[in-house]
């Protein structure tokens, strides 16, 4: 008898301990969500006017919801405790169809909805407006699984980058976004939105830099627009936010904001064509780049002319200034990680599932030479 109740008590204790552990873990998780350190991809931490307008709307809806929550839960708790069965109570008077109450709980929520709808619609219209002359025009190309950025303003000489969008601070950047199929050469800005001729224009992607603006879908056959703007120089990570295939999660990118003068310098550097490799391993790599079909998919400005290929090869990322970038292959690998770059050249699909860069069966020596060459493309 005694032993039975003792083990029962122990059972209770361990159940209580488990409950405590569960609560502690839950609380820990909750607290982890409330960190105060800078969150690089939080829409609640806006870094420019577009994101701020959206965040302000979010704040409004959030605080209204908090008010409604407290009021409703408070009334429920009040009713639960105030009118609980104390034993021996009679069944209270039954009421149905109180016109005054019903009017009240119809009109108040309707007013709340109007209070949310008016600023929402206002903000939607404001943000849909195209920025004026002062905006920087950039074309965004979404492909499986990487992003291309082409600077459209005349004085920017058609600079093209991949997975890295550089912008000046304090100036709206007007993005015109198009989705293209992974293997189709880019036909250029005007021709790109057409679907047809037996060529699919790819799948839907979604361009999202949480600290600079909300999501915008990039839809085949259309040109979608989005304005972003950053107040301060810095790095604003973004990613594809619409499932687009196997490596959707590896379709990241960075927006890098510079002071205007620094941005102009960046554009000037990027507009420079690549220099021919001097000699040695890099020169060997340069030759391989041409003979191993790389040049059929990757543009290197200033090089095609010499190689005699079309100046507009654009199936894969433009590599003119590859070594000046931070990341490659959809923003997931560090450019300066030589071992990673070699693994990429050896078998792209092995390190990034579903990648549209083929395995070209390169030997180790060829990979060494190509890597040496790629690092000269600063
Ligand atoms: C059939 C077209 C094709 C060929 C041929 C090709 N590539 Fe690629 N390459 C791609 C595509 C597409 C990507 C983007 C893949 C991704 O990010 O998922 C890519 C990505 C890359 C990248 C990363 C670029 C970046 O900034 O993200 C490098 C470097 C690269 N290729 C080098 C080479 C070299 C060197 C060769 C020749 C040995 C070569 N490629 C041949 C299509 C090709
Ligand atoms: Cu995508």
What structural class results from the helix and strand content? alpha+beta
Broad CATH class of the largest domain: Mainly Beta
- Mean pLDDT level: 88
What count of domains describes the coordinates?
3
Per DSSP, the total helix count is: 10
Main-sheet strand order equals 3-2-1-5-8
Bound molecules: heme C, copper (II) ion
Output the CATH topology of the largest domain.
Immunoglobulin-like
- Poorly predicted regions are 305-311
Share of β-strand residues: 15-25%
- The secondary-structure element order is HHHEEEEEEEEEEHHHHEEHHH
Walk me through the structure.
The chain is of the alpha+beta class and 378 residues long. About 2% of the residues have low confidence. Helix 5 crosses helix 10 and helix 8 packs across helix 10. It has three domains: 66 residues; 132 residues, Immunoglobulin-like; 95 residues, Immunoglobulin-like, CATH 2.60.40. The longest helix is centred in the first third of the chain and has 34 residues. Helices cover 40% and strands 16% of the residues. Heme C (HEC) binds next to helix 6 and helix 10.
Please specify the SSE layout and strand pairing.
Blueprint: H1 2-32, H2 49-82, H3 99-128, E1 136-143, E2 146-151, E3 160-162, E4 164-168, E5 173-179, E6 205-208, E7 216-218, E8 224-228, E9 234-240, E10 252-258, H4 260-271, H5 280-291, H6 294-297, H7 304-307, E11 327-328, E12 333-334, H8 338-346, H9 348-351, H10 364-374
């Amino acid at each position: 008898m005694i032993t039975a109740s003792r083990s029962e008590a122990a059972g209770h204790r361990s159940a209580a301990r488990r409950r405590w552990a569960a609560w502690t873990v839950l609380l820990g998780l909750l607290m982890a969500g409330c960190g105060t350190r800078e969150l690089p991809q939080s829409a609640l931490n806006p870094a420019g006017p577009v994101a701020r307008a959206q965040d302000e709307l979010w704040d409004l809806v959030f605080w209204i919801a908090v008010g409604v929550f407290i009021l409703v839960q408070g009334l429920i708790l009040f009713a639960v405790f105030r009118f609980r069965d104390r034993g021996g109570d009679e069944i209270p008077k039954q009421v149905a169809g109180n016109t005054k109450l019903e009017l009240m709980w119809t009109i108040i929520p309707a007013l709340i909805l109007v209070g949310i709808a008016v600023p929402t619609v206002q903000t939607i219209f404001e943000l849909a407006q195209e920025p004026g002359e002062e905006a920087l025009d950039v074309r965004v190309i979404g492909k499986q699984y990487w992003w291309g950025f082409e600077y459209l303003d005349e004085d920017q000489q058609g600079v093209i980058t991949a997975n890295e969008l550089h912008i000046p601070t304090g100036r709206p950047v007007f993005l015109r976004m198009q989705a293209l199929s992974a293997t189709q050469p880019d036909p250029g800005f005007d021709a790109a939105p057409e679907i047809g001729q037996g060529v699919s224009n790819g799948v839907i992607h979604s361009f999202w830099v949480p600290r600079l603006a909300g999501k915008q879908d990039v839809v085949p056959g259309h040109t979608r627009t989005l304005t972003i703007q950053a107040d301060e120089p810095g790095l604003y990570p973004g990613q594809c936010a619409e499932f687009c295939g196997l490596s959707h999660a590896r379709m990241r990118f960075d927006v890098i904001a510079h002071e205007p003068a620094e941005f102009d310098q960046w554009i000037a550097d990027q507009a420079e064509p690549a220099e021919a490799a001097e000699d040695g391993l890099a020169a060997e790599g340069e030759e391989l780049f041409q003979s191993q079909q790389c040049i059929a998919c990757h543009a290197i400005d200033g090089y095609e002319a010499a190689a005699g290929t079309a100046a507009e090869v654009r199936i894969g990322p433009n590599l003119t200034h590859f070594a000046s970038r931070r990341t490659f292959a959809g923003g997931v690998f560090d450019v300066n990680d030589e071992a990673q770059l070699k693994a990429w050249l050896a078998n792209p699909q092995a390190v990034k599932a579903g990648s549209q860069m083929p395995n070209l069966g390169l030997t180790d020596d060829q990979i060494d030479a190509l890597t040496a060459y790629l690092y000269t493309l600063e």
